[in-house]
Amino acid sequence: MSPSVKVIVVNWNGKRFLPECLDGLRRQVHGSFTVTLVDNGSSDGSVEFVRRNYPEVEVMALSKNLGFAAANNIALEALNTEYVALLNNDAVPHPMWLDALTRAMERHPDAGLAASKMVFHHAPDSIDRAGDGFTAAGVAQLRGRSERAETYDQEEYVFGACAGAAMYRTDMLRDIGLFDEDFFLLYEDVDLSFRAQLRGYRCVFVPDAVVAHKGSSSIVHDSPISVYYSHRNLEWVYLKNMPAALIPGTVLYHLVYDVGSLFYFVITGRGRDFIRAKRDAMKDMGNTLRKRKRIQSRRRVESRYIRSLMTRETFLDRLKRRFLHAGPNHG
């Protein structure tokens, strides 16, 4: 018997993407799973479309847009399966996607989450991301972005998983908690990956779990929403999760990243959104530090283990990627 899995798809005015996504789930070879679509108050007829054309999908229709984090949490709170997989509405899974993730989790009992090989929908030979990295500047990294897909063919441990196509062990979520709803959207998956690592749950990258991702479909690259939430929330991830012993060695790089980002967004006309993001991150400092105290008090791993997961920050390469292959989140 295949382990039971719930697949959650969060949707907001994404009716045009849903046929490919849900048809991809219909083609899954995994033997035991259900699909729940959480609709964030769409006005494009998404709910009616799914109920009419995909009767096997459970629909949770929310009255308004609660954000990616809260919408997922509503479905996650009702879990009764061993595993849960999250999938973006603009992502199309290969038929073996769910089976590959589940088998990897079974092979790695120390893993609390698994990352998919996400390729560009328009260029499936190129990586969108092969799991998430985290740099010495305290910033998330789209692992493998724009590299050849065949390069990432080894199952290996990585820092984290993009929630656009990931699997989580239900017991782990009960231990570390769900997404931080204060994030609303963007970086909530990085925060969850960091909290998982601090509690000793590893993340395994699964190269056979392939998903074709359209990307930037709901959140336009460097839109006011994207700039604000990503650059507010990355500060919260750093402040909540970075072990105290690692702050002296990362804070200077973090500040350099922030200053460089400020110049970039001023030049590109998003300076106000960036400054507002940093202002609001600092305004919530008291709440953030309370969360930090709770997270750090439950940490099971040594600081050197977290440092071993962090990659070198290459500011120029990051800037080049922004211009060549725009993405909605992670810096």
Provide a descriptive summary of the structure in words.
By secondary structure, this protein is of the alpha/beta class. The protein has 2 domains: 5-213, Spore Coat Polysaccharide Biosynthesis Protein SpsA, Chain A; 224-324, no CATH class. The protein contains 12 helices and 12 strands. The strands form 2 sheets. Strands 1, 2, 3, 4, 5, 6, 7, 10, 11 and 12 form a 10-stranded mixed sheet that branches. β6 (111-120) and β7 (127-129) form a beta hairpin. α7 (224-241) crosses α10 (285-297). The termini are far apart.
What distinguishing features does this structure have?
two-stranded antiparallel ribbon, 12 strands, disordered C terminus, alpha/beta, ten-stranded mixed sheet
* CATH architectural type of the largest domain: Alpha-Beta Complex
Global shape: globular
Low-confidence stretches: 325-329
Q: Give the CA-CA distance, first to last residue.
A: 41 Å
Note the run of SSEs as H and E: EHEHEHEEHEEEEEEHHEHHHHHH
Q: How many whole angstroms does the radius of gyration measure?
A: 19 Å
Count of domains: 2
CATH C-level category of the largest domain: Alpha Beta
Q: Helix count?
A: 12
Helix content: 40-55%
Average pLDDT score: 93
Question: What fold name goes in the CATH topology slot of the largest domain?
Answer: Spore Coat Polysaccharide Biosynthesis Protein SpsA, Chain A
What's the total number of strands? 12
Task: Please summarize the sheet with the most strands.
Answer: 10 strands, mixed
CATH homologous superfamily placement of the largest domain: Spore Coat Polysaccharide Biosynthesis Protein SpsA, Chain A
